[in-house]
Amino acid sequence: MTDTFPLKYTRDDFRSDQVVRWCPGCGDYSILAQVQRMMPRICAETQTPRENVVFISGIGCSSRFPYYMDTYGFHSIHGRAPTLALGLKIARPEMQVWVITGDGDGLSIGGNHLVHAIRRNVDVKILLFNNRIYGLTKGQFSPTSEFGKKTKSSPYGVIAQPVNALGLALASRATFIARTLDTDAKHLQKTLLRAAHHRGTAFVEILQNCNIFNDGAFDNIKDRQVRDERLLFLEHDKPMRFGTGGSKVLVPSGAAHDDHFAAVSDAEANIDRALIHNEASENEGFMYALANMDYPEFPVPMGVLRAVEQATYEDLVEHQIEESKERLGPGDLQALLDAGECWTVD
Question: Domains in the chain, please, with CATH?
Fold first, then answer.
């Protein structure tokens, strides 16, 4: 499709003239760079002119994102970015709408709005930056902070279980769910491209480091020395292999428990038993168990967990409108306003 798209953009076309104001070393810089780098390709492959691209954010460090993209954008209020995105997409379905949110903005005050945007399957792309901390307000625990974590607002340790973003998206019937890393440029780019091509709500969790208030939050799984053993990169229709050189594999833990599995060494000897990843699997128990895998018991899944086709909310709205017009006629707004008892005030 790229050869038929009349406009050829570069990364510079998506860089605004605003000074980027994040703490030096913040993972947000990497995410911004990859989004700017991928937008020319995304626009070409989806046949979307730049003036039809919009970024919408709430409140938080990540929510400065629209200022740094040379596109249309909204810096909205805390947790409400999905709501604005839904309204915009229904009113202007030709727009390519991206939501930028964080673990605090999206999973705390915005949790309700996020869930309902996902379940409606509006054609928007939601990028949730997860650093397991409130960065903008200087280091309080967030909905994804680990149990027992000591922060400024939990000096004796967090006593609530953390929200699993992928599990929440799965429970909300998301049609596209993925996870990636701020420091893995190639994987992040690949994931962004997959999300952009998905028609429906695409939910992407990006594990992102806050080097000021929660430095090294994900070092135990993403450091070069350990990542092969602790990350499982999902690929559709391929065995779930991980470890150095793909030396380990996930296998079912028993015939009676197809939503339970075990990690075993010697992948080659167990390849016939290996679990095959299916992005369109209808086995909800298995998918939920996969979404909730975590180190140290299991490797942490990365990549596209789920991708299925389903009618979008805006298409269904348009269908209802057209169906009503055929049955009742085009309608008359003034007649509707004048219906029933009316008073004239002189």
Answer: 2-217 (3.40.50.970)
